[in-house]
Amino acid sequence: MTTPQGHEGIILVADDNEGNRELLSALLSAEGYQVVGAVDGQQALDRVDSDSIDLALLDVVMPRRTGFEACLAMKSKPETRLIPVVLLTSLNGDDDRIRGIMCGADDFLTKPVNKHELLARVHSLLRLKQFTDELDNAEAVLFSLALSIEAKDPYTEGHCDRLSKYSVALGEKLGLSEDLRVALRRGGLVHDIGKLAVPEHILLKPGPLTPEERKIMEQHTIAGERICAPLRSFRHVLPIIRHHHEKQDGSGYPDGLKGEQIPLTARILQVTDIYDALSTDRPYRKALPVQKAFAIMREEVKRGWWDGSLIDQLELLVAESALQLADAGAKNER
């Protein structure tokens, strides 16, 4: 809803004191914001889950769930953790502010609230939320473009999604940080986005590529990096995109990196990519059994192509997943 003042956004006001809720709602509504109310911390979380909330003002002392608890719950969920949270409190102790910071609060306001300070902070945080939303939209466009490449070949249906899941699972098994696991998830989806720059007669050619065509195809890693480079949130994804065709012996592309010069995340994507290619149907052959797929991968390790230690971990992961599926199937039959 656009207003004469130009302000827009849906703001949640959570306070068990009706007078406080009405005062804050009146101040914000007068500026053109849409206000949603909640009488306690649990209702605030229900509102966040059911409505498109852009910013939450949470009183600290509330029944059912405190403002601290509601804030922590919001910041713990991927769906709501980017919603700015302002804690409203009459508590002035440093311990309370530190607790709020630990819960993920974006700002604090002390009661009684100063009107001008409230509106200034709300306006600032909503601008940041708008930038975040625009970033999410840009990422969504990239993912859609990446999936459009996959859709051109019926034999690669679901490949990016499987690759993303395999890579993240392997990253978790190796104890990688959350940032790198997120990069692996994104990298699995967009690693081949640079193929948008490859002519279709080369991209979809059924037979072997000529040396000239192969040279063009190998530029897709550089093109993909260039496409995604403007997104700062993709800084950990760029090495995956650029280097997922390097080889341990330096015979890969585009930079001829060797061994541990190749980023670990790119090496993880490599082995999951190869495994998925071998274990799914292709135009020229049926899917290979798991043991056969790993046997081929180990032969290629001997040729100096892949990181054998990662293949060991991936094989363990695949075996564990198969065992879990078998156990689940046995329980369902009982």
Could you please describe the fold and organization of this structure?
The structure is a single chain. The protein has 334 residues and is α/β, with parallel strands linked by helices. The chain has two domains: 10-132, Rossmann fold (3-Layer(aba) Sandwich), CATH 3.40.50.2300; 154-333, Hypothetical protein af1432 (Orthogonal Bundle), CATH 1.10.3210.10. 56% of the residues lie in helices and 7% in strands. The protein has 14 helices and five strands. The chain has helices at residues 18-30, 41-50, 67-75, 94-102, 115-151, 159-173, 178-190, 200-203, 211-217, 220-228, 238-243, 264-278, 290-302, 308-333, and strands at 10-14, 34-38, 55-59, 85-89, 107-110. A five-stranded parallel β-sheet has the order 2-1-3-4-5, sandwiched between helices. The N and C termini lie far apart (55 Å).
Helix and strand layout, with pairings?
Elements: E1 10-14, H1 18-30, E2 34-38, H2 41-50, E3 55-59, H3 67-75, E4 85-89, H4 94-102, E5 107-110, H5 115-151, H6 159-173, H7 178-190, H8 200-203, H9 211-217, H10 220-228, H11 238-243, H12 264-278, H13 290-302, H14 308-333
Helix pairs in contact: 2-3, 6-7, 6-12, 6-14, 7-12
Concise account of the structure shown:
The chain is an alpha/beta fold. It has helices at 18-30, 41-50, 67-75, 94-102, 115-151, 159-173, 178-190, 200-203, 211-217, 220-228, 238-243, 264-278, 290-302, 308-333; strands at 10-14, 34-38, 55-59, 85-89, 107-110. Strands 2-1-3-4-5 form a five-stranded parallel sheet, with helices on both faces.
